[in-house]
Amino acid sequence: MKKIKYSDIKTDYVDQLKEELINDQDILSLIKELNLTEDDVSKNIIMFSDWLQEHKYCKECTGLEMCNKSHLGYRLNIDENLEQFYGPCEYLQTRENLITHRKNYLLCDLSEKNLTLSLNDIDLTGESEYYKGIVNIAKQWVNELPKKGLYFYGGLGTGKTYLASAICNDLARNGYKVAFVNYPKLCSDIRNNVTEYDYVDSRMRKLRSAKILVIDDIGAESVTAYIRDDILFPILDYRMEHGQRTIFTSNCDLKSLEKRMTIVKSGEEDVIKALRIIERIKTLCDLVAITGTSRRSL
Questions:
Q1: 82 with 40: CB under 8 angstroms?
Q2: pLDDT tens digits along 72-88
Q3: pLDDT tens-digit series, residues 185-197
Q4: Helices then strands (H, E): number in the chain?
Q5: Residue 206: CB partners within 8 Å, gap ≥ 6?
Q6: Residue 165 in contact with residue 117, Cβ under 8 Å?
Q7: Angstrom distance (rounded) from CA 97 to CA 94
Q8: Strands, E, within 80-222: which ranges?
């Protein structure tokens, strides 16, 4: 009985793989696109085999939520010089194109989903005339950029953050340097890094200097004298004095916010310091009430 050699098995496997590759329609399309030859495939079997395996997987993909790669959205490619490289797939490229304006955010607490929002994409089907009017106010504000900002207030889920996010994105797309901060998160981050002067100073500078600043969910934080008097007040005072446009979202109207700002976490009350905050918000913003049921379930 003739002894089978490993080299023979290996040769047979390579020949079979080579045959499969040069007869595969995806490989044939690739070598035509790159102006290569079947001989190039034969000489680089492992490279084309790896490409084909990944290509077949990616062909079945319908979106980034399906991707299980360690580098989400990146796929193996081959160029005309037979060099391998990884590049973004069509789904990742589409997402990246939607958030190129991210570079114009000095600070950004927006989720990736909210970074894609635009006022022009808001679906007003079935919305009330009142809400349509609110969206028109937002669009007019972006187009005209009046000196006074907007203070959106209303119940949970009524779309305040949604509108503020869309406004901020549209202005960032137009090249403005903007900042969007979730106020409770900002307060927590500063308290956790209060001894890091550079950290606090960097954020203060960006919050003061942003051409458009959105302070989201003010009134939902645990109020402390330090945050109110040494962080929030100087930011608002600077922006008021320098005519920097500021937008707020809140579950509180100004009367409720004043009460929240009056009593700090320690129990100490200071009506005057609370009023200083409220007066600057009034100077900085026009009030816009957003009413209706929650849109989060829509």
A1: yes
A2: 888 889 999 999 988 88
A3: 999 999 999 888 8
A4: 13, 8
A5: 106, 107, 179
A6: yes
A7: 5
A8: 84-88, 105-108, 149-154, 178-182, 212-216
Q: Which residue type, as a one-letter code, is found at position 138? A: A
> Residue 18 in 3-state DSSP?
helix
What are the extents of the domains in the chain? 6-94, 99-290
As given in the structure block, the two tokens for residue 74 are: 């990146």
pLDDT at 265 over 90: no
Bridge-partner residues for 65, per DSSP? none
* Closest listed residue to residue 229, CA positions, set 266, 264, 183: 264
Instruction: Using alpha carbons, select from 279, 261, 276, 149 the residue that is nearest to residue 215.
Output: 149
Q: What is the chain's length?
A: 298
pTM of the model: 0.74
What does the DSSP 8-state code read for residue 63?
S
Options 3.55.40.20, 3.40.50.300, 3.30.200.20, 3.40.50.10330; CATH of 99-290: 3.40.50.300
- Residue 298 is predicted with a pLDDT of 45
List, in sequence order, every residue forming a beta bridge with 153; answer none if it has no partner: 250, 289
Q: What is the pLDDT of residues 200-251, one digit of tens each?
A: 999 999 999 999 999 999 999 989 999 999 999 999 999 999 999 999 999 9
Rounded CA gap, 183 and 190, in Å?
11
Long-range Cβ contacts of 18-25 (<8 Å, 24+ apart): 18/42, 18/45, 21/45, 21/48, 21/49, 21/52, 24/52
